[in-house]
Amino acid sequence: MTNRLTQESVTVSELDLCIVNALQIDPQARWHDVGKVLGVDPVTVMRRWESLRRQGLAWVSARPLETPSRSIALVEMECRSGTSAKVAADLSLDPNVRTIDITAGGRDLVVTLNCRTMDQLTWYLVEGFAAAPHVSRVRSQLMVTAYTDPRPWRLRSLSAAQTQALSRRVHRPRPPALDYDEVDWRIAAALSSDGRLPTADLAEQAGVSVSTARRRLNRLLSSRQVQLRCELARSISGWPVLAWFFARVPSEQLDQVGHALAALPEARLVTSTIGPYNMMFSVWLRSVRHAQELEAQIVREHEEVRVVDRSVVIHQYKLAGRLLDTRGVSVGVVPLSVTEDA
């Protein structure tokens, strides 16, 4: 599915940003509730959101199912000269390749690989990526503990009172994980294209009745085996620069540092890893200069952190299944696979 736009600049209103902020807090919020908090008619809220979604400026999607066997790696790739975009385009069609960043720095690509099993992930790292045309070197880090991911990142367009009002129904105790089957994967796959898909459409895509789709969806959301997130084009966020930092931290201080970095307003992903580094984190920044300032702040406040390398993303080619243009505008989607071997 594509939604191609020209490369001309786009602008959004403050109301648009408030709506996105509301859905970042609660991706399934009813338009009535959002309108009430914003003091706007619900029909206006729905119309503005549909306009943003149609233009690829904002969207709600779903992560792969949270299962005990799920395995994630962050993979650095070096490509033959002039082939980074070609490699990114080829990899982008794979549903297990969730995010692709084309970078300036010590690697050409940073790829997030999300697999159902360790065996599947091993195949990619040992055979799949190594045999990819134009790829000259692959370095991989297995994700261990994610201290934060992009879901908690907020625009901060809403007041504290508005944020609290929308947060009330979101925070609830997490029940134990439940058994899952292929129906659950079909639901997750459908939601990865549109996290606000009407229940009737969800039922049709999952091949079940409306009542079954509603019951399964509620179960998956309440157990947090399916987690939704609202994203927006980085060019309209006020944080147009994305950067990666690669660090080494004493093992006994990993949790302390990880939680501290996760609290940074710039943080998008902070995770401990097994590989050449034992911590990687990505951030959204106001400017390239801010990357140096943030690194200096981190090292100053955490003397135990040794930043080994850093890279600025020059084109985030894919984000959690969404294909993006150079402005971060969604121009297509590669849904989650519903088969084990994709």
Task: Tell me what the structure shows.
- The protein is of the alpha+beta class.
- The protein has eleven helices and twelve strands.
- The chain has a single domain (about 60-155, about 170-340), classed as 2-Layer Sandwich (Alpha-Beta Plaits), CATH 3.30.70.3460.
- The chain starts with 13 loop residues before the first helix and ends in a 9-residue tail after the last strand.
- It is globular.
- The protein is about 35% helix and about 25% strand.
- An eight-stranded antiparallel beta barrel has the order 2-4-3-10-7-9-8-5, surrounded by four helices. A two-stranded antiparallel sheet has the order 1-6.
Give a short summary of the structure.
This protein has 342 residues and is of the alpha+beta class. Helices cover 34% and strands 27% of the residues.
